[in-house]
Amino acid sequence: MTQMARLQVGITLFLLTLLTGCSGNKPERQILSREQDAALLAAIDPIQKMTDQHQTAQAKVALEQVKGDFPGIAQFDLGSFAEAELAWSELKRARAGKHYKKIITDYPDSVLYDPSMARIYDIGCYYLEGPLVIDFLFLKVKGYDRGITLLELVSDELGIDDPNGMGLSAIRMSAKNLQERKRYEDAFLKWLEISTVWESGEVGREALLGMAECKYASYQLQPIHRRPLFDTGRLEEARTYYKRYANLYPVSADELGLLDIIIDLDEQLALKQLTIAQFYQRTGEATAAQIYFERVVKDWPETDAADKAREQLDLINNSTKG
Known about the structure:
Blueprint: H1 3-25, H2 34-52, H3 56-69, H4 77-89, H5 93-106, H6 113-128, E1 132-134, E2 140-142, H7 144-158, H8 166-180, H9 184-197, H10 201-220, H11 233-248, H12 250-256, H13 258-282, H14 286-299, H15 304-321
C-alpha cells in the first residue's frame, strides 16, 4: 500500500470514528409517563404565574430547576417552553410565539402542547389589537396580520367544532377583525368556514349574518355612481344570505333592520339592469334595451328603477304606435 493510500484510509477511519461518536452522543427525547406529565404541569403552573407578572429572574431559576428534574426533555419541548416563557415574561411576544409554535409543530405529543397553544392564542389576541410591529422591511406596521396567522394556527390545530373551545373562538375573532378592517372577502371566507360546521344556533346565526354583511359591504366600497358598472354577483349573494337570515330569524332580522337592507339590495340590482338597458338604448340596440327594461319591471316591480323602466317602455310603445 502506498503512502498516499494509507493516508486516505486513515482519514476515512478518522471520519467514521468521528461520525459514530457524534451519533452515539446525540440525546434522545424521553417519553414521559402520565405521572410525570402531571408532575410537569404542576411544576410549570406557578412558573407561568411568575412570567405573567414579569418576574423573569425568579422564573428563570425555577425553569432551570424543572429542566433538572426532567432531563429527558430539557433539550427538547421543555427547553423550547422555557425559552418561550422567559420571552413572554419580557414581553418579547414574537420570540415567545416562535418557541411556542416549535412545540406545536415538533412535539404534538407533549404535555406542554396545551399550555403552548393557550399562549399562542393570547399572543394572537394581543396582535389583533393592532400594536405596531417591525415587518421584514424594518418598517413599523400594525400587527393585525401576525395575530390572524397565530389564530389560524389555533383554529387549524384545535378545530372549530367545540362551542367553548379556543379553536372556534380564534376563527370568530379573526373573522370579526377582518370585517372591521374592511377586508370583506377574507372575512367572508372565515364566516363561510364557520358556517360549514355550525349551520344553526347562535354561532350559525352569527356566521350567516357575517357572510351577508361582508358581501353587501364589499360592493358598497365603490363610489355610488360607479356601482352599477361592477358585477352584482356579491349583491345577489348578499340578498340570498339576508333573505335566509330573515326567514330563519325573523325577530332578529326586524331588530337589525334587515328588511330595509333587502329593499336596498333590490334597488341596486334593479339599477344594474336599468343601466344595461340604458346602454343599449344609447347605442341604438332598441330590441335589447326593451328586453332589459321589461326585465326590470318584471323582476323588481316596486323599485325606483322599475318606475323609470316603465316610462321608457311607454315612450317605446308610443313611438311604435306613431
